[in-house]
Amino acid sequence: MSTPAAFTASHASTHRDGDDLLTAGLGLAGLQSALPPAFADATRPTAAEARRRAIWSNWRGIADLAPGGGYGSVYGSTATVPGREFSALATLPGARQPHRVLVQVPDGFDRARRCLVVAPASGSRGIYGAIAVAGAWGLPRGCAVAYTDKGAGSDYFDLDAGIGVRVDGTPGAAADGGLAFVPEAPVGAKGVAFRHAHSQDNPEADWGRHVRQAAQYALQVLAEALPDAAPFTFDNTRVIAVGISNGGGAVLRAAELADSGTDGDWLDAVVAGEPNIYVEAGGRALYDYATEAALLQPCALLHLDPASMAQPPMRATVERWWTLRCASLQAAGLVSGTTVAAQAQSAYDALRASGWTDAALRSGAASSGFDLWRSVAATYASAYGRYGVGEHPCGYGFAAQAPDTSLRPATDVERAAWWSDAAGIPPGNGVNLVDSKLAPPDFTLAGLQCLRALWDGQGADADRVRAGIAETRAALPRTGLPVVVVHGLDDGLVPPAFSSAPYVAAAQAAAREVRYWQVRNAEHFDAFLGFPDYAARYVPMLPYVYAALDRVDAFLDGTGALPADAVIATKPRGSAALTADDLAIP
Asked: How much is the pTM?
């Protein structure tokens, strides 16, 4: 293998009575609890308390754990897996900020069949953001699992108080050192900074290198944890990379690195679920379709039958806002028509012409209803342009706010839970997206138009953001590397027409070993299936990711073939309990 990367702040967590690697001792029942594990002191959690709550939060943010949803009975595992954790901060050459890496080594590690699963977090989540994806599959099988937050994560920094997050997940003052993220910020800066928006590194451009660095760290950890079985190398240890959403994009980017340096065949297989991946031929960048959707989708959704969309968001709550958006778009010359119905038709036609399907629009209603597109676009614009604190080209910031929207300091209680509870992009957990361009009647329109202009407009800021986006374009995986891509055909956050489909087409045209499962009646967020109306319409995606891992593992063992491409005809469970027949896994 190549020269080992440098890792700092390394520490190991040992066995804890009643605890485990996969669920932090909570088990399925504890993960299903609507109440998070409490801190004995709400302002000063211990490292063990912060870890337990982070694991609870990340399970619930990714998996459908609702009764009847099938987790733990039809698919998946929450088995107790005793073992050790090792974590560190890793820094890529040339990066300003580190990313987190963490390795779980089960006591039952299979020394005769050395297996490492490496998993980047989905979305912008923290270090446990892939535990329900990779840990649930790998740990019960005796595999070690390596995680990375891929340069994002929940290490929020309170600029007012000078307090961030220590490597162990507890709050700490910058003056004391030992924090996972300290932004470069001007004197007197206020609000909250976080790594994805404010690292000035454009982490998405380096997703693949984050994944490989996590794997390198894991080999070092295994040698430390199991010295009698050392050395551990890419030649004698099976390495499978798996991720979903942004994590799915990251493992596909990692596949590009297989022919570089002396680590030639460091990666043995890849499974990418609903990946955010950008290929130039036929694909669309997330920033492009997110800013398009942020502007047009609220109006376009009024063209669709309300009964065709799952609730929440509750249409009655947002319909007035969506109607206002139609009028704003018409006044700006972005849609045509003198009635709401005609304006909605115009917005719908524009989205359909740019590649949106009805299925993607229907499930994407959640992103419009929860104003997700705006928070994603604001964060990614800052990352792509490598802007620092207070430099956002559209004037966005992040801070705690009072009920009248005035800025206020974060509380000790809020800060204590950021690392455990936050998903990596505000709003949430007491931190809001602050829009300096808010103005009536359509309060968010001006900011959204500014964000869109960074994609299709002129000027230094637009050039800077587009240059950052260009750095995220994907290349093909190594020849012969087994890759399985799994995507729901109803995905409204990362529509497959913009991501998986063009990636697979390019890879297969180049004779790469890429297989594609397209899952009918599947959207992006398994956690949404806890809402009955979502469960009635959609099936979970995790079972197909686990099944794809089974297939590539058997292929590497020589006991099975790679799966064939398939369009999987599923059956949503309605009000009944999920069954294996509903999933129709090939």
From this structure: 0.96
